[in-house]
């Protein structure tokens, strides 16, 4: 699979523009605030159906306009295919895959899988638990429609249960309903915990191999999926029991306190929590290893190579880590943004397509 071309209309700072990509490395360069990251964002939208920068789709519309439209042209199994996303104020989103209208944005998942490595990726190491939950959920949703269904169902249960808990907090008597919601939460939540644990095991193996390569064997990684139940217990029974034991505390606070929506993926390097004890260099290595591990996981599960999106991260990595990343990239299709084009002119013995962006316009495209 390879992406060929991206069309943008009224998207961010692009009036109407077209970008063509190399099957190997495409380097998008230019000064800050010219629109490089906007291209990466649009490509990531085709992978996940969501922006990694905002939840408000109105922000994606060019100032003064009422809609945006983006279209991706890609090739898979020698067939040329297209995906089009349109969003209009007051009318919502519209998705077409090969000119066939789709009812749900989730139909995108797994079609053009992508892995995004950006400066914010360090939040996977040093950020709040929600950042790490989001990352593993994106991976699992791209590889399993069932997981997406389970996660959506679980989130609806939590929303309804929270409403009931606030009613109970105010003195209304609906205690019997709470037992029903507790059981539903445990049933749905247990499947999420089980799938996240499996992914953590797979990522740990991959990250260990990668991190030892980056650190010359000096560092070892351990991933701990931190939940409210013991690992050797049956997940459904243990989760339900824990929820029931904390029922009064949840009523007092009017909120669900137990479950996978509060879990964490803790990352340890040489037995030390990377969020607290690792240097910035180590945290960058861990973030790099995690993104490459996710890339490998998606490739294995989906049977096709994901697109690697590197948004202004080379400046965050020293020369050794940059070389390691280029070695790992191999023949995978990669889109890179940078303000420092000169650093890439002798970076690798491979074809690189250079795309210059200036004030929302693609100035020139050439290949060396």
Q: How are the SSEs ordered, and which strands pair?
A:
Elements: E1 2-11, E2 14-20, E3 25-29, H1 36-48, E4 67-76, E5 79-88, E6 92-97, E7 100-102, E8 114-117, H2 123-126, H3 129-143, H4 145-169, H5 175-214, E9 221-226, H6 235-245, H7 247-253, E10 264-269, E11 272-273, H8 274-277, H9 280-302, E12 307-311, H10 319-329, E13 334-338, E14 352-358, E15 361-367
Parallel strand pairs: 3-13, 3-14, 8-12, 12-13
Antiparallel strand pairs: 1-2, 1-4, 4-5, 5-6, 6-7, 9-10, 10-11, 14-15
Task: Describe what you observe in this structure.
The protein is of the alpha/beta class. It folds into 2 domains: 1-113 and 306-368, P-loop containing nucleotide triphosphate hydrolases (Rossmann fold, 3-Layer(aba) Sandwich), CATH 3.40.50; 122-303, Up-down Bundle (Glutathione S-transferase Yfyf (Class Pi), Chain A, domain 2). It has helices at 36-48, 123-126, 129-143, 145-169, 175-214, 235-245, 247-253, 274-277, 280-302, 319-329; strands spanning 2-11, 14-20, 25-29, 67-76, 79-88, 92-97, 100-102, 114-117, 221-226, 264-269, 272-273, 307-311, 334-338, 352-358, 361-367. A 6-stranded antiparallel sheet has the order 2-1-4-5-6-7, with helices on one face. Helix 10 (319-329) links the parallel strand 12 and strand 13. Helix 5 packs across helix 9 (280-302). The longest helix is centred in the middle third of the chain and has 40 residues, at 175-214. The relative contact order is 0.17. The model has no long low-confidence stretch (mean pLDDT 91).
